[in-house]
Design a protein that fits this description.
mainly alpha, 2 domains, rod-shaped, single chain
Amino acid sequence: QLHGKQAEVLGAHNGLRELLAKLQDGHAVLHDKHRDLLGAISGITMPDLSPFHDHFSVVGDVLTQQRTKVTSIEQRLSTLEKNDQDQQQLLDAILKRLPLDLDKQLKGIQADVKSAYAA
């Protein structure tokens, strides 16, 4: 029995040794691929991005200027709308104070003036 157990343990040990050898071989392959990848990456040169940065900087400046102009126009429009409302209220107040028969009164005054000139 002891001899059978030793053979079984030895077989398991050999199996583990083979598995470990396969893992080491796989690791070596991955290590080689990693080295190749690092070599390929190190050969890549970074393009000059200055033109893009310059362009987007100019675009940002233009947008800021346009935003400022729009804000100014909105403020002026708001002021004009407020002035229009104030003038409308003033006109409404004036019209409310005028007599309802103003047209008749004006025609009467015109007739009196004509009569005075005729006399």
